[in-house]
Amino acid sequence: VFRLLREGPREARGPAVAYIKDDPDQRKRFQLATRLAERFDEYQLYRPDFLLAWERGEQPIEDPAHLGTAAWQAALWRTLVSESGDTQPHLARRFATLTRSLRDSETAPRGLPRRLSVFGAASLPPIFLDLLVAAARFASVSLYVVSPTREYWSDIRTPREAAKQLDMFREKRLADEYAHVEGGNPLL
Q: Which string of b and e fits 113-128 if b means at least 16 CB within 10 Å?
């Protein structure tokens, strides 16, 4: 990315050309390249559909305000992919290929264990969830999550705290719809 911001095709550099114009020590170019590389990493996990669409020459962003930004990022991404060739497919491509092969397969792939367990994941990017769903056709998939509730933990009250809060609501004569207190599972 660092090299392409200086030497890449004009459409792949977009507004970066003006941004790094006055950059004698290359610090701006380095910082921008770092941020773009981080963004592409995030796209691989959270927006692989963007990257795969960009490779096909499509523009997945529907908001016209972002088309200019996406266009030069898409051109930069296509340049990166074309330079790396098919020998090193990127993460989004590998996951898409693997997920598609699991979905299309009639039999379990050789080497896939009968049971998959995911421990302690506080969150999983959609790309991993898609892969686990596809693998679940052939294997038992168990997620052992850190937070066993959808509720915000600080909103969960012990029965004693809940009773105290409800008494306060009654004393102030607040409407019943304001008097709801989340008790949650007692194990929490």
A: eeebeeeeeeeebebe
